[in-house]
Amino acid sequence: MKRIAKSKLIRSLSALPPTELSRFRDFVHSPFFNKHEPTQYLADYLLLHQSSWGEVTKQELSSELFPGEPFREALVNNIMSNLTQLLHRFLAQLGLEDEDMEEELALEAALSREVFPIFRAGLNKARKGLSLADPFDPATHRKRHRFALLEHKFLSSLENQYTVPSITASISGLDAWYTHLRLRYGVALKSLRVAHGAKDTDDWLPILQRYVQERSEGEWGTAVWPLHQQALEVLSNMEDESQYRALADLITEHESRLQLEDLEQLYKVRLDFCIRRVNAHSPYFQEELFRIYQMFLTTGTLIQRGQMLQVNYNNITSVACNVREYEWAARFVKDYADKLPAHGRENAYRYNMANVFFHLKDYDSARSLLLQVDFTNIYYKLKTKFLQVKIYYELGETQLLESTMDSLRIFMLRARRLSSDLRIGVKHYLQFGKRLSEASNMTGRQQKSAVRRLRKDLNAVQAPVLNKAWIEEQLNILLPEEAEA
């Protein structure tokens, strides 16, 4: 029995949301696009039996399409192929709607067919709309290019018409559109290279920046490019906070006019910078990081195909707890759990809810959840051990603390696939954690001396120290009068 579950058609239909599947059925039944009744019937049958796509066979389709006849696999394949081609055209129609190119394509079709009354009226209407369009939108410049080019072609066809202004306007719009997209995706490329520690292997960046700098804002008619240029400056100088603040100021000034794709890309640059500064233990950037994650949640950027990556779920919860937004963090963990991939959902929820309970000092609830975390993922095992160390320290359960730290130490000796930075970070965490535990059991001058030495050594170390902020917080509790010093 030949099931259709793995066919291109079913795999493609499975990716569409219910609203678009309904629109696709209407598309298939439109006589302009399709008059083939067996293909229409196949679409109806599949959408009616959507819940059982995994069980449907070609033999069943053959019986439905050609009742009373022998199994006709070749014909079934042809009809499935027809429906697949219609799905391709349907997606093209959706893309056309998303790109807002209907007006341009209609004018082009009218001109090529010499339907001049519609072309002239449409071009005049398009010009009026273009005068009100937002220059921050690259589509505005694409339309400038296309409309002016169509006007040039029209005037050229009339002969003895002066076409230089129209073709000049077309070139100007093309330059503006291309440069906008080149900057947008140049920022994305630079961001990826910085994230992976890769060097620029070509000279595209200085050429692009020089090209933009040679043109005045007046000539281009938009102020969006300086934002992308500033983002490139930030990515080229990831330790320079002044460059970051300049970008933040520009975004604040123009945020309401930026296209969503530009805004998300610029905020991603800010996110990457903030994460780097947080890892360097700069407290101010925790608050900044929290605000950026909130913006991403508002725009839906972190939800792709209905799902959120576990790393983002974990990071957002951690950042919210670090800035003491505990109630917000608890709501987030509960509200977004169903957005996680099914295979890791329970683990992510239990660990992150335990993290929230720990910060709320509800140690019993935190411990109970941590016991339910499945160590199928090596990083959840590490995170769970880190959190258990904090809980046992804060509860003063010395034996459990020492046992957990020993278990973590043994685990690190056996784990072969961890990065060197992570290994060093855990090693220092264990070293400083053990000294912190010892200092907490001391009293008087002996404790003060131990805390001072530990604080000095912690500040002096240049290599990564995982959970450094928590260790510093505990030292400040043991010796608060010297915390600021």
What attributes does this structure have?
single chain, 485 residues, mainly alpha, 24 helices, flat
Largest sheet: none
* Rg over alpha carbons: 31 Å
Shape: flat
* Pattern of helices and strands: HHHHHHHHHHHHHHHHHHHHHHHH
Strand content: under 5%
Number of helices: 24
Structural class: mainly alpha
Rounded mean pLDDT score = 90
Helical percent range?
Answer: over 70%
Cα distance spanning the termini: 77 Å
Organism: Phaeodactylibacter luteus
Protein name: Tetratricopeptide repeat protein
What does this structure look like?
This is Tetratricopeptide repeat protein. It comes from Phaeodactylibacter luteus. The chain has 485 residues and is an all-alpha fold. It has helices at 8-14, 18-28, 37-48, 58-65, 73-99, 102-112, 116-131, 138-158, 164-195, 204-213, 217-220, 225-236, 241-254, 260-279, 284-299, 310-322, 326-335, 345-359, 363-370, 378-395, 398-414, 420-440, 444-460, 468-478. Among the domains are: 8-99, no CATH class; 116-179, no CATH class; 389-485, no CATH class. Helices cover 72% and strands 0% of the residues. Helix 18 runs parallel beside helix 20 (378-395) and helix 19 (363-370) packs antiparallel against helix 20. The termini are far apart. The relative contact order is 0.03.
Write the layout of secondary structure elements.
Blueprint: H1 8-14, H2 18-28, H3 37-48, H4 58-65, H5 73-99, H6 102-112, H7 116-131, H8 138-158, H9 164-195, H10 204-213, H11 217-220, H12 225-236, H13 241-254, H14 260-279, H15 284-299, H16 310-322, H17 326-335, H18 345-359, H19 363-370, H20 378-395, H21 398-414, H22 420-440, H23 444-460, H24 468-478
Helix pairs in contact: 1-5, 2-3, 3-5, 4-5, 6-7, 6-8, 7-8, 8-9, 9-12, 9-14, 12-13, 12-14, 13-14, 14-15, 15-16, 16-17, 16-18, 17-18, 18-19, 18-20, 19-20, 20-21, 21-22, 22-23, 22-24, 23-24
